[in-house]
What does this fold into?
Amino acid sequence: MGYGDALVYGLVEGITEFLPISSTGHLVLTKEFLSSPLDDGAEEAINSYLIVIQGGAILAVILLYRRRVWSVVLGFAGLNPQGRRLGANLLFAFLPAALMGPFLDELIEAFLFGLLPIAFALFAGAVLMYWVEARKKSESSGMSDAGKSLNDLNLRSSLLIGVMQCVAMWPGTSRSMMTIVGGYLVGLSRRKAAEFSFLLGMITLTAAAGYKCLTKWQVMKENLELGPVAFGCLVAGASAALSVVWLVGYLARRGLGIFVWYRIILSAGILGVYFWEG
It folds into this structure.
Protein backbone atom coordinates (compact mmCIF):
# COMPACT_ATOMS: atom_id res chain seq x y z
CA MET A 1 0.00 0.00 0.00
CA GLY A 2 1.54 3.30 -1.12
CA TYR A 3 0.68 6.90 -0.25
CA GLY A 4 -1.80 7.13 -3.12
CA ASP A 5 -3.80 4.18 -1.82
CA ALA A 6 -3.54 5.53 1.73
CA LEU A 7 -4.97 8.88 0.55
CA VAL A 8 -7.95 7.15 -1.04
CA TYR A 9 -8.57 4.93 1.99
CA GLY A 10 -8.30 7.95 4.31
CA LEU A 11 -10.78 10.02 2.32
CA VAL A 12 -13.25 7.14 2.05
CA GLU A 13 -12.98 6.37 5.79
CA GLY A 14 -13.26 9.98 6.92
CA ILE A 15 -16.17 10.92 4.69
CA THR A 16 -18.20 7.77 5.32
CA GLU A 17 -17.44 6.86 8.97
CA PHE A 18 -20.15 9.03 10.51
CA LEU A 19 -22.57 9.07 7.58
CA PRO A 20 -25.22 6.32 7.74
CA ILE A 21 -23.85 4.54 4.67
CA SER A 22 -21.21 2.17 6.14
CA SER A 23 -17.56 3.15 6.17
CA THR A 24 -16.40 -0.47 6.41
CA GLY A 25 -18.54 -1.42 3.42
CA HIS A 26 -17.09 1.44 1.38
CA LEU A 27 -13.54 0.57 2.44
CA VAL A 28 -13.99 -3.07 1.45
CA LEU A 29 -15.36 -1.96 -1.92
CA THR A 30 -12.43 0.44 -2.31
CA LYS A 31 -10.01 -2.39 -1.54
CA GLU A 32 -11.66 -4.56 -4.19
CA PHE A 33 -11.01 -1.90 -6.84
CA LEU A 34 -7.58 -0.72 -5.66
CA SER A 35 -5.86 -3.99 -4.86
CA SER A 36 -4.49 -6.54 -7.26
CA PRO A 37 -4.74 -10.17 -6.09
CA LEU A 38 -3.03 -10.45 -2.69
CA ASP A 39 -1.50 -13.33 -0.77
CA ASP A 40 -3.11 -14.32 2.52
CA GLY A 41 -0.79 -12.20 4.69
CA ALA A 42 -1.25 -9.01 2.66
CA GLU A 43 -5.03 -9.55 2.51
CA GLU A 44 -5.18 -9.96 6.28
CA ALA A 45 -3.02 -6.87 6.80
CA ILE A 46 -5.19 -4.67 4.57
CA ASN A 47 -8.42 -5.92 6.19
CA SER A 48 -6.96 -5.09 9.61
CA TYR A 49 -5.85 -1.64 8.44
CA LEU A 50 -9.40 -0.91 7.31
CA ILE A 51 -10.30 -1.05 11.02
CA VAL A 52 -7.19 0.68 12.37
CA ILE A 53 -7.66 3.66 10.03
CA GLN A 54 -10.74 4.57 12.08
CA GLY A 55 -8.27 6.07 14.57
CA GLY A 56 -8.30 9.24 12.49
CA ALA A 57 -12.07 9.54 12.80
CA ILE A 58 -11.77 9.07 16.57
CA LEU A 59 -9.43 12.04 16.79
CA ALA A 60 -11.91 14.18 14.83
CA VAL A 61 -14.71 13.45 17.32
CA ILE A 62 -12.48 14.15 20.32
CA LEU A 63 -11.55 17.56 18.89
CA LEU A 64 -15.05 18.55 17.76
CA TYR A 65 -16.78 17.38 20.94
CA ARG A 66 -13.99 18.18 23.38
CA ARG A 67 -16.38 19.96 25.77
CA ARG A 68 -18.66 16.93 25.95
CA VAL A 69 -15.68 14.62 26.34
CA TRP A 70 -14.24 16.81 29.09
CA SER A 71 -17.60 16.90 30.89
CA VAL A 72 -17.57 13.08 30.95
CA VAL A 73 -14.03 13.08 32.35
CA LEU A 74 -15.10 15.55 35.04
CA GLY A 75 -18.20 13.46 35.68
CA PHE A 76 -16.21 10.33 36.45
CA ALA A 77 -14.06 12.47 38.74
CA GLY A 78 -17.23 13.42 40.65
CA LEU A 79 -17.24 17.04 39.46
CA ASN A 80 -20.00 17.06 36.83
CA PRO A 81 -23.25 15.11 37.45
CA GLN A 82 -24.51 15.50 33.88
CA GLY A 83 -21.16 14.38 32.51
CA ARG A 84 -21.22 11.33 34.80
CA ARG A 85 -24.73 10.45 33.58
CA LEU A 86 -23.69 10.78 29.94
CA GLY A 87 -20.55 8.72 30.58
CA ALA A 88 -22.58 5.95 32.21
CA ASN A 89 -25.00 5.92 29.27
CA LEU A 90 -22.12 5.69 26.79
CA LEU A 91 -20.53 2.80 28.68
CA PHE A 92 -23.85 0.93 28.80
CA ALA A 93 -24.31 1.48 25.07
CA PHE A 94 -20.79 0.18 24.42
CA LEU A 95 -21.24 -2.94 26.57
CA PRO A 96 -22.99 -5.20 23.98
CA ALA A 97 -20.28 -4.59 21.36
CA ALA A 98 -17.55 -5.11 23.94
CA LEU A 99 -19.00 -8.50 24.86
CA MET A 100 -19.82 -9.72 21.35
CA GLY A 101 -17.08 -8.15 19.21
CA PRO A 102 -14.11 -10.37 20.15
CA PHE A 103 -16.14 -13.55 19.59
CA LEU A 104 -17.53 -12.51 16.21
CA ASP A 105 -14.45 -10.78 14.77
CA GLU A 106 -12.94 -13.75 12.92
CA LEU A 107 -16.31 -14.95 11.58
CA ILE A 108 -17.20 -11.50 10.28
CA GLU A 109 -13.84 -11.09 8.53
CA ALA A 110 -14.08 -14.58 7.03
CA PHE A 111 -17.67 -14.51 5.72
CA LEU A 112 -18.98 -10.93 5.50
CA PHE A 113 -16.11 -8.97 3.91
CA GLY A 114 -17.48 -9.46 0.39
CA LEU A 115 -19.59 -7.74 -2.27
CA LEU A 116 -22.78 -9.78 -1.87
CA PRO A 117 -23.08 -9.48 1.96
CA ILE A 118 -22.38 -5.74 1.74
CA ALA A 119 -25.01 -5.21 -0.96
CA PHE A 120 -27.62 -7.03 1.13
CA ALA A 121 -26.75 -5.02 4.25
CA LEU A 122 -26.93 -1.72 2.36
CA PHE A 123 -30.40 -2.50 1.05
CA ALA A 124 -31.74 -3.81 4.36
CA GLY A 125 -30.40 -0.72 6.12
CA ALA A 126 -32.14 1.53 3.58
CA VAL A 127 -35.48 -0.12 4.32
CA LEU A 128 -34.96 0.30 8.07
CA MET A 129 -33.98 3.97 7.67
CA TYR A 130 -37.02 4.68 5.50
CA TRP A 131 -39.33 3.23 8.14
CA VAL A 132 -37.73 4.98 11.10
CA GLU A 133 -37.56 8.36 9.32
CA ALA A 134 -41.27 8.14 8.48
CA ARG A 135 -41.96 7.27 12.12
CA LYS A 136 -39.86 10.23 13.29
CA LYS A 137 -41.70 12.66 11.02
CA SER A 138 -45.10 11.50 12.26
CA GLU A 139 -44.00 11.90 15.87
CA SER A 140 -42.46 15.36 15.41
CA SER A 141 -45.75 16.88 14.16
CA GLY A 142 -44.08 19.26 11.75
CA MET A 143 -41.26 20.35 14.08
CA SER A 144 -37.94 20.06 12.25
CA ASP A 145 -35.90 18.51 15.08
CA ALA A 146 -38.17 17.62 17.98
CA GLY A 147 -37.14 15.08 20.59
CA LYS A 148 -35.23 14.42 23.79
CA SER A 149 -31.79 15.74 24.69
CA LEU A 150 -28.86 13.62 25.87
CA ASN A 151 -29.73 14.56 29.47
CA ASP A 152 -33.04 12.67 29.04
CA LEU A 153 -31.36 9.36 28.18
CA ASN A 154 -31.43 6.52 30.70
CA LEU A 155 -29.44 3.31 30.93
CA ARG A 156 -32.18 1.16 29.38
CA SER A 157 -32.42 3.38 26.28
CA SER A 158 -28.63 3.48 25.99
CA LEU A 159 -28.45 -0.32 26.15
CA LEU A 160 -30.97 -0.55 23.30
CA ILE A 161 -28.79 1.74 21.16
CA GLY A 162 -25.82 -0.47 22.04
CA VAL A 163 -27.62 -3.64 20.97
CA MET A 164 -28.46 -2.03 17.65
CA GLN A 165 -24.83 -1.03 17.22
CA CYS A 166 -23.90 -4.73 17.31
CA VAL A 167 -25.87 -5.33 14.10
CA ALA A 168 -23.45 -2.95 12.38
CA MET A 169 -20.62 -5.47 12.81
CA TRP A 170 -21.95 -6.72 9.46
CA PRO A 171 -20.07 -4.61 6.88
CA GLY A 172 -22.48 -2.52 4.83
CA THR A 173 -24.92 -2.01 7.70
CA SER A 174 -23.27 1.14 9.17
CA ARG A 175 -22.53 1.68 12.84
CA SER A 176 -23.57 5.30 12.47
CA MET A 177 -26.88 4.34 10.87
CA MET A 178 -27.79 1.78 13.53
CA THR A 179 -26.95 4.09 16.45
CA ILE A 180 -28.75 7.08 14.92
CA VAL A 181 -31.78 4.86 14.26
CA GLY A 182 -31.51 3.63 17.86
CA GLY A 183 -31.47 7.23 19.02
CA TYR A 184 -34.61 7.93 16.98
CA LEU A 185 -36.36 4.91 18.49
CA VAL A 186 -35.67 6.03 22.08
CA GLY A 187 -36.94 9.53 21.29
CA LEU A 188 -33.78 11.62 20.79
CA SER A 189 -33.91 14.55 18.41
CA ARG A 190 -32.11 14.06 15.11
CA ARG A 191 -29.23 16.30 16.18
CA LYS A 192 -28.81 14.57 19.55
CA ALA A 193 -29.13 11.09 18.04
CA ALA A 194 -26.22 11.97 15.76
CA GLU A 195 -24.22 13.44 18.64
CA PHE A 196 -24.69 10.33 20.78
CA SER A 197 -23.69 8.20 17.78
CA PHE A 198 -20.45 10.18 17.38
CA LEU A 199 -19.57 9.96 21.07
CA LEU A 200 -20.36 6.25 21.23
CA GLY A 201 -18.31 5.76 18.08
CA MET A 202 -15.35 7.36 19.81
CA ILE A 203 -15.39 4.54 22.37
CA THR A 204 -16.34 1.71 20.02
CA LEU A 205 -13.87 2.62 17.28
CA THR A 206 -11.07 3.05 19.81
CA ALA A 207 -11.76 -0.44 21.14
CA ALA A 208 -11.99 -1.96 17.64
CA ALA A 209 -8.81 -0.26 16.39
CA GLY A 210 -6.97 -1.14 19.59
CA TYR A 211 -8.06 -4.77 19.37
CA LYS A 212 -6.82 -5.00 15.77
CA CYS A 213 -3.49 -3.44 16.72
CA LEU A 214 -3.04 -5.97 19.51
CA THR A 215 -4.06 -9.02 17.51
CA LYS A 216 -2.84 -8.13 14.00
CA TRP A 217 0.17 -5.88 14.65
CA GLN A 218 2.71 -8.42 13.44
CA VAL A 219 0.97 -9.15 10.14
CA MET A 220 0.47 -5.42 9.47
CA LYS A 221 4.12 -4.72 10.33
CA GLU A 222 5.28 -7.40 7.89
CA ASN A 223 3.08 -6.26 4.98
CA LEU A 224 2.49 -2.49 5.38
CA GLU A 225 4.80 0.51 5.72
CA LEU A 226 4.35 2.88 8.66
CA GLY A 227 4.38 6.07 6.56
CA PRO A 228 1.31 5.31 4.40
CA VAL A 229 -0.49 3.81 7.43
CA ALA A 230 -0.07 7.02 9.46
CA PHE A 231 -0.84 9.24 6.46
CA GLY A 232 -4.13 7.45 5.82
CA CYS A 233 -5.17 7.96 9.44
CA LEU A 234 -4.41 11.71 9.27
CA VAL A 235 -6.42 12.10 6.06
CA ALA A 236 -9.27 10.17 7.68
CA GLY A 237 -9.27 12.56 10.66
CA ALA A 238 -9.41 15.72 8.56
CA SER A 239 -12.15 14.46 6.26
CA ALA A 240 -14.15 13.00 9.18
CA ALA A 241 -14.22 16.39 10.91
CA LEU A 242 -15.77 18.00 7.83
CA SER A 243 -18.22 15.12 7.45
CA VAL A 244 -19.40 15.36 11.07
CA VAL A 245 -20.01 19.12 10.90
CA TRP A 246 -22.01 18.74 7.70
CA LEU A 247 -24.05 15.75 8.88
CA VAL A 248 -25.28 17.34 12.13
CA GLY A 249 -26.69 20.34 10.31
CA TYR A 250 -28.13 18.28 7.46
CA LEU A 251 -29.90 15.75 9.70
CA ALA A 252 -31.52 18.49 11.79
CA ARG A 253 -32.99 20.05 8.63
CA ARG A 254 -33.65 17.11 6.31
CA GLY A 255 -33.41 13.76 8.09
CA LEU A 256 -32.19 10.45 6.65
CA GLY A 257 -34.06 10.39 3.33
CA ILE A 258 -31.14 11.08 0.99
CA PHE A 259 -29.12 8.27 2.54
CA VAL A 260 -31.95 5.79 1.92
CA TRP A 261 -31.75 6.38 -1.82
CA TYR A 262 -27.95 6.41 -1.84
CA ARG A 263 -27.84 3.00 -0.15
CA ILE A 264 -30.41 1.52 -2.56
CA ILE A 265 -28.54 2.81 -5.63
CA LEU A 266 -25.18 1.62 -4.30
CA SER A 267 -26.61 -1.80 -3.41
CA ALA A 268 -28.03 -2.17 -6.93
CA GLY A 269 -24.70 -1.14 -8.44
CA ILE A 270 -22.76 -3.67 -6.34
CA LEU A 271 -25.17 -6.46 -7.28
CA GLY A 272 -24.81 -5.51 -10.93
CA VAL A 273 -21.01 -5.71 -10.73
CA TYR A 274 -21.15 -8.95 -8.75
CA PHE A 275 -23.39 -10.81 -11.19
CA TRP A 276 -21.76 -9.27 -14.28
CA GLU A 277 -18.31 -10.43 -13.22
CA GLY A 278 -19.66 -13.73 -11.86
User: Anything to note?
Assistant: The chain has one domain: 3-277. The two ends are 27 Å apart (CA to CA). DSSP finds twelve helices and no strands in the chain. The chain has a mean pLDDT of 86.
